[in-house]
Amino acid sequence: MWKNPDTGELEDFLRVTEIIWDVLGWTTKVHFKAAKADFGTRVHTHVENWIAGTVHPEDISDLNERAHLEAYIQFQDQTNWQPKEIEKIVYCHKRRYAGRVDQIGLYAGVPAILDIKTAAAASKFTGYQLAAYASALGDHEMTRIALHLNSEHDGEQYTGKYHVHFYRDPMDFHVFNALAVLWPAMGAKHWQNQKDLFKRVSRDG
User: Fold this and answer.
1) Within 13 Å of residue 114, how many CA atoms lie on the same side as its CB?
2) pLDDT means per 10 residues in the chain (205 residues)?
3) How far is CA 129 from CA 113, 114, 154, in A?
4) How far is CA 9 from CA 3, 13, 90, in A?
5) Distance, CA of 14 to CA of 196 (rounded, Å)
6) Mind giving me the DSSP string for 118-144?
7) Which long-range contacts (CB under 8 A, 24 or more apart) does 43-52 make?
8) Which among 128, 144, 113, 123 is positioned nearest to 176, based on CA atoms?
């Protein structure tokens, strides 16, 4: 359930990531371990707190997490990225989906949406995700960026690194729209059955 920003009422919108992973993710056996998800959440929190001015890298005891924050700061300094909105919830009433955008801001002076990833490799799924957010914001021309934060460990210390991946394929919008139509057409029970089947196959080898 998501709170409609216009009415303040709770409404039953589908999550952007739920649509993508239900239709594509499970069938391609793409999934994440809980430990990796928790690490990514902590990195996101550090970045949010840095922007808010409530934390600095030296405040973070985990050296790997600290390196990831330093990579974000390096990105911000080197590209003049200007975050304007953090963790913004966006809605598409036509397709009945919603999602939480990591950051909306200015990149090279133009409007952009930024998704922070702690996975090293770029993914086509992120392209669909960012296209969904841009559609919900009503701006297909927004620059769509995935910022990949990672680190290198030489045995003594961690060094933060970053890589910027731009998603420019207009087909991403068409693909996500197709997914957003397919999910409700098949029904929630169908997708839950798909998940249960995948879990059984994974468990049984």
Assistant:
1) 28
2) 61 84 62 66 96 96 96 97 95 90 96 92 91 96 96 91 96 94 76 60 52
3) 11, 11, 34
4) 5, 12, 15
5) 19
6) -SSS--HHHHHHHHHHHHHHT-TTSEE
7) 43/68, 43/69, 43/116, 43/118, 43/149, 44/102, 44/116, 47/72, 47/116, 48/86, 48/87, 51/83, 51/86
8) 128
CA atoms in the 13 A half-sphere facing the CB of 160: 21
pLDDT score at 30:
45
CA 75-77-82 angle, to 5 degrees, is: 85
The conformational region for residue 7 under phi > 0 = left, psi -120 to 50 = alpha, else beta, is alpha
Rounded Cα distance between 20 and 129, Å, is 8
Q: What is the pLDDT of residue 194?
A: 61
How do residues 14-37 score in pLDDT, each as one tens digit? 889 888 887 876 544 444 455 567
Q: Of 5, 15, 27, 12, which Cα lies nearest the Cα of 191?
A: 27
Radius of gyration over alpha carbons of the chain, in Å?
Answer: 18
Find the length of the chain.
205
- Give the type of residue at 175: V
